Amino acid sequence: MNYIDDKPISYCGIFGVFGSDTAALNTYYGLHALQHRGQEATGIVTRHFTEQGKPFFNLTKGEGLVSEVFSDPSTLSDNLKGSAAIGHNRYSTTGSAKSRKNIQPFVVNYRMGNLGIGHNGNLTNANVLRTQLINEGAIFQTTSDTEVILHLIARSKLDNQIDQILEALRKVEGAYCVVILTDDKLIAARDPLGFRPLSIGKLENSFLIASETCAFDIQSANFLREIEPGELVVIDEDSVKTGNIKSYRINDEKIEKKHCIFEFIYFSRPDSYIFGHNVDKMRRRLGKILARKHPVTDPDGERVYVISVPDSSNTTALGYATELEKQGIEARSEIGLIRSHYIGRTFINPGQEKREIGVKIKFNPVKGVLEGRTIVMVDDSIVRGTTSKQLVSLLREAKPKSIHIRISSAPITHPCFYGMDFPSKEELIAHQMNEKIEEIRKYLEVDSLEYLTIDEMLEAVSEAGKDNFCTACFSGSYPTDFDRNFKKEIYEV
Questions:
Q1: pTM of the model as a whole
Q2: Would you kindly state where each structural domain of the chain is located, as residue ranges?
Q3: CATH for 274-482?
């Protein structure tokens, strides 16, 4: 957990390309656009053919941001040759964050040739499968649940590689999006519930796969479509020649979609298109409903100033301010907090004594905007509450008339088992305060605090289908059955 942000941490970012003379560079730019999905580590594997015509995999990975790991241009041009590649940005959800072995993509060589994989999500039955595989003689090199998929593929007795991968994915449960690179194919798949987004793009004759469409925009690629929940797609040389992508179903039965609603609330970039809709549009709707249900007025009839906690709630705050104006409440969206983008990863320290200075280094209030005014701070969520409390303290230094917090999600009361690194239930402030918003308000020391309810959240994203979202972290109603101790057990492997 990034303790400066004290926010839900997103899963990971994955990218793939097939049929490009600059596959490594395409992947670099794609991962750069997906940096927000994982900042601990990154890696790229490419496939090229030797002079003898044999496929060869090249791998470069390391701890740090994309720009740090691939700071030497020769790494992309000389070390990562080839016309096909996959890449991965990591934030650890399962597996030790400190182990370099857990950095993806993972690469193996088995009886069918080379195979590389990048995975985004959490497998809820990973520990059970891992135990079975170990008992059958499998030797694991990492503590990541992704390696379970590799072993399932490698140990399959089927002779067709696509069938092997389908068989493996039919055994795993939970949330996953994967990109797989073989000697002659790029394969991508999305879990049957569709917890997280995955899309297909096209750049000239090459095909791209990415967690979010912003990874296409950075290189002027065209967005083709989203990979459907429960779909596996195969891209090969025939696809490059004909433009046709092969598609397979992981499961035959129709399963109700359960998209992660936090993708719209917080995780995805506002310029991305996911779950059939633009993220920016959905965030503005969240802000508008938040203003409709929980408006703020100035007691003296003066203008209300709406600010965001940059950057994730910027567009939500715009929606909130716009809706206040529609209701006849004079309001203005302002920049009240300046965020520094240059603190670096090394400053992040989990010690409680470091958090206060951490918030001050990352944020600074604009006193000229805040002084003597009624301020509404719009944010997407509150996890532990430590950062929100310190932000309120910063705002108080600017001497506003009053401070009101509006949250565009419901109170987080339960941990996530599908890829978000929420702390334990006991660490969640909503759980600590027995879900009493007034008690949370007192802790934060603000004049008022309001959240959206679960129904109000779903109303905001209703264009994508109210029943198509997972709200387990708010309701405790999980869409799948599993051992609730699985995450702890995987960490201890």
A1: 0.92
A2: 13-255, 274-482
A3: 3.40.50.2020
Q: How many CA atoms lie within 13 A of 45 on its CB side?
A: 24
| Phi, psi (deg, nearest 5) at residue 215 | -75, -20
CA 456 → CA 256, 290, 408, distances in Å?
21, 8, 9
The span from the CA of 285 to the CA of 278, in Å, is: 11
pLDDT tens sequence across 98-145 = 568 899 999 999 999 999 999 999 999 999 999 999 999 999 999 899
Backbone dihedral angles phi then psi of residue 209, each to the nearest 5 degrees:
-125, 135
Q: pLDDT tens across 413-444, in order?
A: 999 989 887 768 889 999 999 999 999 999 99
Enumerate the active-site residues: 12
**Closest by CA position to 15, among listed 27, 1, 24:** 27
Helix residue spans in 298-400 (DSSP H): 314-326, 352-362, 367-370, 386-397
Please report, as a single letter, which amino acid is at residue 372: G
- CB-CB neighbours of 18 under 10 Å: 29
Measured CA to CA, the distance from residue 202 to residue 199 in angstroms comes to 10
CATH number of 13-255: 3.60.20.10
Which position has the token pair 């939500």?
A: 316
